[in-house]
Design brief:
mainly alpha; MgtE N-terminal fold; CBS-domain; 3 domains; three-stranded mixed sheet; 22 helices; 6% strand; cell membrane; metal ion binding; transmembrane; CBS domain; metal-binding
Length: 454
């Protein structure tokens, strides 16, 4: 019986497995280790030292170890692969799901992927090659070929017998896909409907014909949103001719959503490709530097704005005290609206007819924030500096700045999305810098216009 460890018995159980490994008791090790949940097997294995890992390779069959290898991240897979004998690794790849092998080979360089494919079983290798032929981040690239398909003329009892034989090799059997004589998708039946149907009933009479499927070239993020919308455990992937060619399961969707969220976070923070803590300092700096350099030049524009109003600053030096306040408030407010817009676009909650509503809402929010901040600043500045006109200038400037900053933060991602680009590239630092410049222009323009009253 498979054991899922909890925090109380984890250390004791792991020590027991380690003791059997150290003692060279292969049978006891297998009996104990293989009872673990696959995730716990991965956690235990990755903490082992080199000599102990080599003993694990001797004890576990390539098929058993394939489940561990699938659970490792790409960097660990590359490292572990170097430790494996060629026949062992080839048999391991033969027992892995095709999509997991394809993901690993995509990360290999120097012709190693082709060498691995040549040493694999040709039928297994062909499935992997088919997946690798699709464009990255499409349904075809992330689907798996291990699924169960049946025909509409089959009898329920026969399908159940088929499942007993084919289920171990399929990634999921919760949905069975019905195809015609040329492999076109014509229906679907859930495992629950199959079990509750009469044994003598034909599949045609119990299957559903309104099948939700995805094209092989659909973007992986759109696939994830579709599975989320329908609460599917899996979705079939079809060709342009509606031929069933694979499925995408919910565990793949979780990985897709994590990948897309990481990508968006990197875009919105101007750190794309450098958010992984395992990335070296040099690589992180190289990937972040283009944005930082671009924003540095934007900073020169900010300095130029201040220089344009040098005479105003010379007249009233006290105005310089509030420059950081204006800039920070504008940037922070714009970034908040940016997050709202990017999230809405990513989740698909912002539709064509609701764009105006969203922008109006953000503008209204900016006005309300501006009024609140204006009131607080007007009172605070008047008390601190005993200057009601200065308080009016600062307060009215913050009101105008926040009102405009929210609109900019909300509309820039919408414009970028309209241009068929990732809206997340309207990064926080970019929006902040733009709003800084506009905030300063508003502040000094108002101050210059009212200079005679100061």
């Amino acid at each position: 019986m498979m054991v899922k460890l909890n925090e109380q018995n984890r250390e004791q159980y792991e020590q027991l497995i380690l003791d059997t490994l150290e003692a060279g008791d292969r049978k006891q090790f297998l009996d104990t280790f293989l009872e673990l949940h696959p995730t716990d097997q991965v956690d235990f294995f990755i903490k082992l030292k080199d000599d102990r890992r080599k003993r694990v390779y001797d004890y576990l069959s390539p098929e058993d170890f394939s489940h561990i290898f699938e659970g490792l991240d790409i960097d660990d897979q590359k490292r572990i692969y170097q430790e494996l004998d060629e026949p062992y690794s080839s048999e391991m790849f033969n027992n892995m799901f095709a999509d997991d092998v394809a993901d690993f080979l995509e990360a290999m360089t120097g012709g190693k992927a082709e060498d691995i494919l040549q040493k694999m079983d040709q039928e297994e290798a062909q499935e992997v090659k088919e997946l690798m032929a699709y464009a990255p981040e499409t349904a075809g690239a992330v689907m798996t070929k291990e699924y169960v398909s049946i025909t509409s003329t089959e009898v329920v009892s026969n399908v159940i017998d088929t499942l007993r034989k084919d289920a171990p090799d399929a990634e999921t059997i919760y949905y069975l896909y019905v195809v015609d004589e040329v492999e076109r998708l014509v229906g679907v039946i859930s495992l629950r409907d199959l079990i509750t149907a009469q044994p003598t009933e034909t599949i045609e009479n119990v299957m559903g014909t309104r099948v939700v499927s995805v094209d092989d070239d659909m973007d992986q993020e759109d696939v994830a949103q579709l599975i989320k919308k329908y609460d599917f455990l899996a979705v079939p992937v079809v060709s342009k001719q509606n031929h069933l060619i694979g499925i995408i399961t919910v565990d793949d969707v979780i990985d897709i959503l994590e990948e897309e969220a990481t990508e968006d976070f990197g875009e919105i923070s101007a750190a794309k490709g450098a958010t992984d803590v395992n990335v070296s300092s040099f690589k992180a700096a190289r990937r972040r530097s283009p944005w930082i350099i671009m924003l540095m030049f934007f900073g020169l524009i900010t300095a130029g704005v201040i220089g344009q109003f040098e005479e105003t600053l010379e007249e009233i030096v006290l105005l310089a005290v509030f420059i950081p306040l204006i800039m920070d408030s504008a940037g922070n407010t714009g970034t908040q609206s940016l997050a709202v817009a990017v999230r809405g676009l990513a989740l698909g909650t912002i539709k064509k007819g609701s764009i105006g509503k969203m922008v109006r809402r953000e503008f209204g929010t900016g006005i309300m924030l501006g009024l609140i901040c204006m009131a607080v600043l007007a009172i605070t500045v008047t008390i601190m500096y005993q200057h009601w006109m200065l308080a009016l200038i600062v307060g009215f400037s913050i009101f105008c700045t926040l009102s405009i900053a929210t609109v900019i933060g909300a509309t820039v991602p919408l414009i970028i999305n309209k241009l068929k680009l990732d809206p997340a590239i309207a990064s926080g630092p970019f929006i902040t810098t733009v709003n800084d410049i506009l905030g300063l222009l508003i502040y000094f323009s108002i101050a210059t216009a009212l200079l005679d009253f100061l």
